[in-house]
Each structure stands twice: as structure tokens, then as C-alpha cells.
Specification:
Helix content: 40-55%
Oligomer: single chain
Radius of gyration: 26 Å
CATH topology of the largest domain: Rossmann fold
Shape: elongated
CATH architecture of the largest domain: 3-Layer(aba) Sandwich
Distance between the termini: 60 Å
Largest sheet: 5 strands, parallel
Strand order of the largest sheet: 3-2-1-4-5
Number of strands: 14
Structural class: alpha/beta
Amino acid sequence: MTLSQELAWRGLVNQTTYKDITALDGEPITFYWGVDPSADSMTIGNLAAAMMVKCFIKHGHQAVLLVGGATGLIGDPDGKSSERSLKPPEEIAANKQTIGAQYGQVFGDGHFQQVDNYDWFKGMGYLDFLRDTGKHVPLRQMLARDFVQARLGEQGAGISYAEFSYVLIQAYDFLRLYQDHGVTLQVCGSDQWGNSIAGVDLIRRVAGGEAHVYSVPLVINQATGNKFGKSEAGAVWLDPAKTSVYRFYQFWLNVDDAGVESYLKVFTELDKDEIDRIMREFNDQRGARLAQKTLAFEVTKLVHGAAAAEAQQRIAKVLFGNEDALELDAEAFAALDKELPIAQVPKAISQEDLVNALVETGLASSKTEARQFLAGGAIYINNRKLDGDFSFDAQDRPAVMVRRGKNNNAILKISA
């Protein structure tokens, strides 16, 4: 299928300045997409836009990926009800390195050119910027922005000159990339539409050129109607130091049935035939959760690599399937040490040992409740259901998995 057809099928069509998106199906276009290093990692919200960028690259368009070293020093005020706290330059510099590394992971080496807008702003004089850029931007246009009106309104918190000028800086980025790299299209998230349009207008006013914007829609959790990508712990990050690979995989594994097909289209590179096949099997047997399992594996592979995805797949089969914990190696157990509660037990685990461990790990609130769970067949060790009168020999294993019900897991470390 063509690029315009694929974007429509994947649900990646939002606002654009093109009269018809089939314009994207013609000659190669040099386009850009940018992320400000206001944090030391992208989130899965950024990943949705990144997957749109990958579609453009796949269909032969040339990508310029910008890390906003200059814009990150100010911070985008759009959508914010009050002033941002400025981040130290050294923090922004460190964040640029991690964002750039994530570009390499998601897009692969050699598929894009990376630029930093700090490179052209660091030596620019204030008067030069006012004369060459500010002179061409009508104040009425800037004041008309919704967030500016909200901040300047009676109940608003106000806005500084620095944040008010953010749109000028981003508009100049587009002009500079148009002049230096032949960029004629900016792709962006829906929240960047206003900033991007300012760049189109600046290119027209300064260079007499034609440029365009294409935005990806906000991804919505179809079960709640809220912005997709928030977990109970907050945003879902691509950096494993902020969202562990285990929690990243589990986030995708636990998405709702209503939205899983949309998430497969947006967040994976699987083609239409493959996703249609997966959804047929999923709808025939929803309890098997094939769609969620495929989604979790594919997104984790994209962000963290195939080895990490395969390790999490094995962990999930042990925690929520029927595989024995012997399938897990020491590295997998070490990863789970940070995610699951742990109790120490002897090699020959008695009923009393297990009762104590269930309370210690929080799988039971009391010894009485622990014994009730055992008697009711609610407790499993290495996916073997236990009854109230049992013994379990851990043999030479360093640890075993204990589970209550379907999803409540803990690790039992075997004492030497």
C-alpha cells in the first residue's frame, strides 16, 4: 500500500496542511521531527510519533531528526497552565545524549540525519534574531494561541517573555532546516500543530517558500477515554532506568481488549495481513490474549532489543502461563528481584514455611488467610497447584516462583 493508505489504515491521520495526503505518495520529501530534551528519555507518547516517522522512512522519504538543545533550555509552554522551571544547561546536555541514543535504537543507524538546534542558536545575537526572525512574525498571531489566551486571562498564571517566544525559536528551526537541508515538511504530534504552523508561515514570509505540516493524532486509551501511556506509576518511559523492561513489557501485556488492535497498528511494524490474522485468532479465543502478547513482544523488541523481549516473554510464560520456573535463568531472576516481593525459605519447603512466606510477601494478609488460600487451591509453586497438606523440595534451584490466583506473584529464595 502507499504511504497515505498505510497512514490511514494505521490511524495516523490527523491535521495536515496538504489539501490531499496523497501528496505524500509522490517524490521523496525531506522532513523533520523533533524532541526537546526536557527529560532524559522519550515516552511512549513520543513513540507513537516516532512510528509515524518510520512509516515515512519506509516509503522513501528522508528524515532529519532534531534534538532541541536550544528549545529544551526554554521549554514548550503549550498545554502548561504555569511557568516551567528552567533546567540547568548541563542537564539538558546530558538529556540530549540519551534522546539521541534512543533515536538510534528506534530508527536504526543510517536511516536518518540527526541535528541539534543549539548548534545554530548558540552563536546567534539577540538583535540578529529580532531583525531576521521576530520582524516577520505578527504579534497578533502569537497572541491568538489558545494557551497564551489562557495564561493571560483573568484566572491565568501569566507567561514570561521567554516562554512566549518559544514558538519563534521552533519556527526558526523549520526555516533553518528548510534553508540548510531542503526540509519542506515537519511531522509532529497533535500538540505541536500551532508551533509547526508558525514555521510554515515564517518560511513563506522570509524565503517565499512552501512548506507543510503533518501531525499524528493523540493516542487515546479506548477503555478510559484518557491519554494513552499513563500507568499507575506515571508515564511509561523508553529508558529502562525509568520504566524497567519488565514493567514496560507488562504495560503492553495488560492493555485493554478494546484498544489492542489500534495499538498494534500504531506501535508495531506488523503489516495488515499479519495484524488481521492476529485479530482473527484473538477474537476466536480472547482468553489466550494473543494480541496483547504479540504487542508486548514487538514493542519491547523495538525499544529494548530482541534478547530483552525474548527474556520477558519467558518470564511472562512462567508468571502467567504453565511453564516451570526452571525456564528462567539467573539473569531473569535477578531482574525479577527488583519487581516482585521476596521471602527466604529452606530447600524442603514445609506448609508452615510457605504460610510464613505468603504473609511476608503480601500474598496473604495473615497466616489464617494463607492457610485458607492453600486449602482452596489458590496457591501455586512453579505453576504446580498446591493443597493444604503438602511438601515441596526445591532440589538444587536457587529460587522458585509462588503465585496466588492468576496474577499475584512472589519469589521464594532457597536458603543454602
